[in-house]
Amino acid sequence: MAKKFNIAAFYFLAEDGSKMPLGGLMRWGRDVSFLIRDKGYEVTVYQKAAKPFEKEFAQGIRVIGVKCPMWIWGNWNFARWLEQNVDTDDPFLFVSQELALSKKIRRAVAVNHGICWNGDKPWYKKWLNRPLQYRLITRLRGIICVDTNYINWCHAELPNRILWEQKLLYVPNYADLEKFTFVPKPMTEGEYPVILFPRRVGGPCIDRDGRGAGLLLKAFEILEGAGLHTRIIYAGPGRLQEPIREWVKQRGLDDRITVTDVPLDEMPKLYTQADVVVVPALSKTSGHLAYIADINGAAAKHTAKKFGAVKAVTDYKEILNDSKVNVVFIVVGHHLHSRFVIEALNAGKHVFVEKPLAINEQQLQDVTEAARKTAGQLVMVGFNRRFSPHTVKIKQLLSSRSSPLCMNMTINAGRIHPEHWIQDPQRGGHSRFGFLTPLHFLDLIHSY
Fold first, then answer.
1. Per-residue pLDDT tens for 44-76?
2. pTM across the whole model
3. Which of 31, 59, 283, 395 is the most buried (most CB within 10 A)?
4. CA–CA separation, 63 vs 148, rounded Å?
5. H or E segment at 204?
6. Which of 72, 96, 81 is nearest to 7 (CA)?
7. Nearest CA to 316 among 337, 344, 348?
C-alpha cells in the first residue's frame, strides 16, 4: 500500500477544477506533486475552490476542490474542512503557509513565495500579519523559502528568533534545471534584448501592481529615452492584461511589447531569454565559471548547475588552490569580506567583492596592506550605481559643463529592525552611517 502525502494549495487547478492556471505558484505545486509521487507516495492535493470537485490529475495524484471563500478569510473555512475530513496524522505540505491554520495538523511543512512588507496595506492588515506569521512559524516544522524575502522579513519583524530561525529553509525557487537552463545567444545587428515578465499581473491598476508590471513599463520608457531599445514579454495572467495592451496600443508599441498567457511547459523556453544579476551576467561574458562554493553542499550544487559552473564545493580553498582560476567573486557575510579578500589576493587571484570591503578600520588597513604586497592583483568592490544607464546618461549630459558641480542626494533606505543582523557591529558592520546602502551613493558621487 502506497504511503500517503497531502498538499494543501490556494490553487492547483482553476476554481472550478476545469484546468491548470498559469503562474509560478501553480507550477511549483504541480512539479512538487510529481516529485513526491515519484518517491513512492500517493498524493492528494486539496485546494480552495468555488464549488466542490474531485479529479484524477495524473496517475497517483488526486485533486479535491474544497468549497470556501477564495479571499483570505476563507483560509479558516479551508482549515476547518481539512480537520474534519482528512487524517491529520498524515504529512502535509502547505503551498503557501497562510493555509496552515489548523492546530491539529502537526506533521506539516509549508512553502513561502514571498511576503508583502508594509507598503500601502491597511493598518489592520499590518497589525494582524505579525501575530499570524509568528503563529505559523512556531507551529510548522519548517518553511521552505524560495527566496530570501520572507527570511529577511522574519528577522526584521518577529521576536524570539532562537525558537524559529532554524525552521526557515532557503531552497531557491524550484525549477527543473534540465529545462530552465540559461542559453547565451549572440545578438545580431538591429535585434533588441528581451525582458521577460513571467509573473501574474493582478494589481488594482498598472501603477499599483505589487509585482512591478507598471514599473517595468516606466523602465521601458526611461531606456527608450536613453536610446536603449528592448522588447518586453508579459507572460503571466491577470486583470491588468487588457490595461497593459491598451497602454501598448496607445503608444504604437505592439511590435515591442507582448502580453500573453504562456502555458507552464513553454515557460522554460522563455526563461532562457531572462537576464539575472551577478552570476548569470558573468555567464554572458567570455569568462568561464569554474566553481561555486557554499558551506551548504546542496545550495552549492544547485547554483553551480543553474549557472553552468564546472564544480560545486564546500571548501573554498579548493578555488584558491586552483592555479587556473584568475578571478574570485566574494559574496559572503559582511564580517568575512576582508578575510576572504586577503586570502584571495595572497593566492594570486583578482578579486570582486560585494560591499562593504571592510566593516572596521583595522580590516580596511589589513586589506590595504595585502593589496600593496600583491600589486599585480586587482580588487573591485561591487558598487554598481555608477554603471547604471541613468548614471551614464547623466554623466554624458554633464560632461560639457565648465562650472563646478555641486550634488545633493536624498536616500530613503527604509527601517531596519534593531535585531536584524545588519545592525550587529560584529556581523553586519552597522556604524554611524546606519544602513550600508549610502555607501553606494558615496561611491556614485565620487565617480563624477
1. 999 999 999 999 999 999 999 999 998 888 999
2. 0.55
3. 283
4. 30
5. none
6. 96
7. 344
